[in-house]
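JOB MANIFEST
job_type = single_chain_structure
chain_count = 1
residues = 1297
[input]
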Amino acid sequence: MSSKGGGTALTRRNYRLSSDTDKPRATGIVNEKLLSDYLHHVFPSTKAQGPAVASLRKTLGFQDLGAHLERLLSEGEASEDSRGRLGPQPVVLDHTSGFEGLLFVDDDLLGVIGHSNFSSIRATTCVYKGKWAYEVLISSQGLMQIGWCTLNCRFNQEEGVGDTPDSYAYDGNRVRKWNVTTTNYGKSWAAGDIVSCLIDLDEGTITFCLNGQSLGTAFTNIKMGPGVAYFPAISLSFKESVAFNFGSRPLRYPSLLLTFIPSNPPSADLTKAHKLLGYIKNVLSTSIDTQEDRLLEKDCALWRLHGEPTVLIALAHIFNHFAPLMCKVYLVEDVLMNFLLGILEGGGSVDEHPLIQQLLDLFWLLMEDYEVNECLKQLMMSLLRAYRFSPIIPDLGFQIHYLRLTTAILHHEKSRKYLLNNSFTFDVLRSVVFFYIKTPLRVKEAGLEELIPTTWWPTHFDKEGKDERDPKDESADERLRRRAYERGCQRLKKRIEVVEELQVQILRLLLNNKDKTTGEASRYIFLNKFRKFLQENASNRGHPTALCPPEYMVCFLHRLITAVRSCWDEGNRKSPGSVNSEEAYVPPQLFYNGKVDYFDLQRLGGLLSHLKKTLKDDLASKANIIIDPAEIQATSMDDLDEDEESGAAQRPFGAAAMGGALARPSWLSSPTLGRANRFLSTAAVSLMTPRRPLTQPEKVKIRTLTVEQRTEEDIEGSHGNDGLLLGRPLEEPDQPIADKSLLEIIDGIVMMYNLSVHQQLGKMVVVSDDVHEYAVALKDTEEKIARCPARRADILEELQKSQKVFAEKLNHLSRRLAWINATIYSKEKMLDVYWLLCVCIRTIEHADNTGSLFAFAPEFYLNVAMNAYSALKNYFSPANSMEELPGYEETLTQLAAILAKHFADPRIVGTDIKDSLMQALASYVCYPQSLRAVERIPEEQRVAMMRNLLAPYEQRPWAQTNWILVRLWRGCGFGYRYTRLPHLLKTKPEDANLPSLQKPCPSLLLQRHMAELLSMDKDMAASFLNSVLNQLNWAFSEFIGMIQEIQQAAERPERNFVDTRQLKVCATCFDLSVSLLRVLEMTVTLVPEIFLDWSRPSAELLLRRLAQLLNQVLNRVTAEKNLFDRVVNLRLPGLESVDHYPILVAVTGILVRILVDGDRQGISRAASVLLSDPCFQLHSIQHLLGEGGDSSSSSARKHFSLHSYTDYISEDEKQKVELMLAFLTEESKQAAASTAVSTTADTSSSCCCCLIIRAGFSVGSHSAAACINQHLMNNKDCFFCKATITGVEDYSKPASS
């Protein structure tokens, strides 16, 4: 069969160097007889051999060699048989008419990605008799149906292959077979598997195989006869992808197949290629001893290209025929790749096999450039496919085999340069496959049962339901199992490390910056490829043709970190005094000097074009950089969007996007790349190399350069040009860095982590979570078996079945977890992420020192710093502990300082990054170790952080701020020491999945800072507390409104389901109300004078507002048979946190502090204000201790009482509540008596109005002045005409009235 590049009609060199008839028969190199013997030995005839025949054979010289070789190659040629099939050659996917839906199709028309709900496509060729097969390489493990269909099958977005009468399919995602109806069949497939589809049109059967193992006959008695022919076909859902092999490449599992579509292998070419390879082997294993006139056999591995004319002329004749064949993918994969792999089969390091380097030299010498280019391209693509779709075996032999050959090829400098420069062959996106180690889903087939014969999982859990790392009551048997399991994990890890080391070797070859003799060094070629790779993944999120799978990205990141650190330290050893890799960071000038392109990624200060305009003076004064005036007029983002819309019509992609099968240019050539290129040419900033060395006052004008225009000098610098480090601010130390190019790679590594690595690390934790859940379930089942009575054999049998299922699942998951821990969560991988965290911290610190230029830093550095810390804390434990990392506490403190300073940094404008910083700080103060780190930062930064937290809650996201203050208080508040909501533990004490809170870890130091700030700054205290009271009023009102709607829905006679989103919002409003009350409790406790010292301007108003809100909450929650009670008793899922205890205890804490713990004057003022509030009801206070209420209903419903929570409310706290109740009872009686006396004197209190007083409010037992003051705290408008009130005057009613 033909292949791309195989039929190229270009002139070839004439290798028949001695074929001229006028030359003498003696070669002048060796004598005629010895040459003849040599040529007969290298090019043996297939006819009878032996001494007698040798003596009679014709003398062979170079002048006859061409004809002799032609005759040898023409012997035994076979014709290809295509009977039983109809269609063109070669077979590809029918992208013109044989599809339904929207698909992306590869350039070679063999790879396809679904881009609609359920897309279908068939091949161009059908079969009607005989035995045929094809292979499908599974790239993603989602929903797909693969098989055969006839021309009459009509598919749509709901029905695909296997859903119509004359189509048959296998679905490894759901493990079923399909032919209108469906039944269980086969095994589940995974990405990297190969499915073989076999059809026998003699017997009428269809069979499928998975990775060379037959799954059994799927269908029998399929429809056959005149007019019936079957096409290979597939239906696949959105973003699923596969690649077909119809025979254009050697089948991976040929032993299963009798023949395959479209025909037999290219037999004639295959025979010639094997013969020619045999002749090459003869040359390599034969040497000529001219002194003894004899031929010597030698080891092929020792052959060297020394330039002997006889050998070279013989090889030239061979390559005259061999070179064109090596442009065909089938022959490269079947002949050349297998030959090269055989050279490495002996083991040992790649350097011990120089024959491959000699052969590559020979290829470049004797083949045309276009031939060797095509050959190398096909060879690397074959290696990539072979590596990606090789099955996992215990010693990872296949993966090691292909990686060793890849390494050997890349050792050859000229070949490496070509492969790096060739945009199709070795783009980073494709080569990333070489750095991935896939996770086996089928443990048995991967051989993990032999490698890890003994399994283990945690069986001891603490009260929080978490695994205990070192359980004290571990039995001897459990200890033996755990240690055996750990030894098996270590064996697996060592084998994986062999593969990882080979992958790092490949990257070190690509990062070589010393191979400049044949052009640009490999590192700088790789750097440009790497930057384009990042651009594709950063700019085209969600586009299936351009995005690198996140599981590939994780492995690539770890190998790249290892290789970069190795190169960095190697350069550091050659340049003593330069920064070593342990202290690596990205200097801030990379963010604004334009040498590194950040595409359209957001900067901390906003858009780059905006920053260049607003900070141009700072750039000139601090960094000696002048922006070219043309650059300041850079296209705005709106213009770019318009360009994108206008350009869409010009793209070939866009024209067919309405339902056609789209031809993808290549794996990397995204349809949206046009926009990215335009963006690069208009918004990125680059430098023009200055003509003379820079001095401090000299300014450098910068202009735009694309990535391709950069040279090594732009990166490394020379003759006074600092390269990537140009524009160093005065605050930045002038510390030498060995290889500046590595800075850009480190910057790219940070970007990679932000793009998808962190999310993937979080996804893989699910296996560990599954192990935990099954372990808990198994332990629970075993306990039930132990408690099961002997008479209930039926229950015992079911429990034992469950026990067996759980144990089998745990055996499988524990082995799979061992693989994941070795490849993703090992100690070495943890150190990589920790190093990345330290790089980000140091980079942020250096950028922060530049002042206003900090705004140029990309947002992703802060994101990666926060996410890397989260990953270290949450994803790598319990297998590896963060506390064991070097410099752990110092790093925590540095990160704490960053979060404390920048969560309210005015230089940061993005709302998303601000929210992320606030959430990270809120998480940071939850845990004792990280909270202590916050306390270790300098006092000035701590006070500044608390001042920012106490800013008014209006016009900014305040919920996270409030949570931070609450977490600083948890453990100090009234009844606020629980880790689980007490009311849930009372109703569901055995539920292990109850919501769990972190153990309280209050910060007395930060509380002291808060108290000092509120005490000294009266204006800030008043505005802060007014905002807290406003938000509490809003949150509690919203909560009450929502539970009214929920109650109404629940009381309807028809069956109603409350929206889960509404329930979630309702619970959130309740939680916000509780947290705001806790902040008020914290403030009242730390700074009571804010409310009780009425010499402060707003103290009385704040106390009245507080009393009003507390009374409202108490009345709503404690009223008999109220709305709150009814909703709580519904026990709706999603409202688990809504109960009496959290909110009533928070209110009680405030009341106790102002009515019991204060001084005499303060208590008197608080009691007076509380009792004078119109909403005050004594029975609400009595409700706290289970007193009061209607005695007739007390038996029907049990009252809430603090006495019921003895584990959470201390005796001292209960005594204080009793004292408060007694005090308020007495004060209430006295107030009632005094009110009765004054009622007749003030039955008609007058209200201040904008008009002449002609009426008054009759408000009963108290003065209207309190109501007026309360109104004016929230609103300065008149009750009626809405005019602004400037003051309130006391009014005495005239005596005549």
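[summary]
The mean pLDDT is 81.
The longest strand covers residues 131-138.
exit_status = 0
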